[in-house]
Amino acid sequence: MKIIAIGMNYSLHCKELHADEFLPQEPVIFMKPDSAILKDSKPFFIPDFSQQIDYETELVVRINRLGKNISERFAHRYYDAVTVGIDFTARDLQRKFRAEGKPWELCKGFDNSAAIGDWVDIEKFKDIQDIHFHLDIDGKTVQTGHTRDMLFGVDKIIAYVSQFCTLKIGDLLFTGTPVGVGPVSIDNHLEGYLENEKVLDFYIR
Fold first, then answer.
1. What are phi and psi for residue 87, nearest 5 degrees?
2. Which residues, 6+ apart, have CB-to-CB distance to 99 below 8 Å?
3. Residues 4-16: tens digit of each pLDDT
């Protein structure tokens, strides 16, 4: 199982963190190892190596078929469920690595940096590009998103990624975060929602 993640997939988030850069013309891809998975409402422990861990709330898609060089018009056949996930980012390390022109996988791929909620069957939604999601911290909504605002939709991402690597059953696709990212602190209570259904619920320790 692999975790494929998309960076800079919402224009306002691009302006939020990368105001001096052009919007991407094709999906920006990075990977997380399977050891990054955090599930079953287990707590997230802030690592010692970072002074700023940010939440990035995302729609996560579960791949359910083996596929290579998938056509965009058939991509919808390759996933069966979605949830809300948090792409935890060691922001201070990311700034350092980017400034030095070095790869920044370590700021994204550390243990437990990919929190995922309960899966919801895709059949529950009429259109994967018409889903609201949001994150509450300590009962207050801090980040909201709508999949229609993606620069690259889910099917386009699947078609693009499958040119380079074979998608396998159980792979996860983190589809990018909207504007509104921010830091977490010890004892924060995170709750993620698809539409009005809570699918993610855990604490920061």
1. -90, 90
2. none
3. 999 999 987 877 7
